Amino acid sequence: MNLVRVIPGIGVPAAARAGLARGRALARLLLTGCCAHLLVLAAWSTPGAPGVEEPPVRQEGDVKAAFLYKFPAYVEWRAGTFEQPSSPIVIGVTGDDAVAEALRGLVSVRKAGERPVQIRQLAPGAFPAGIHLLFVGRSASSHVARLAPMATRQGVLLVTDYEGALDDGSAINLLVIDHRVRFEVSLDATERAGLKLSSRMLAVALWVRPAR
Question: Which residues of 57-129 form beta strands (DSSP E)?
Answer without folding.
Answer: 75-76, 89-94, 117-121
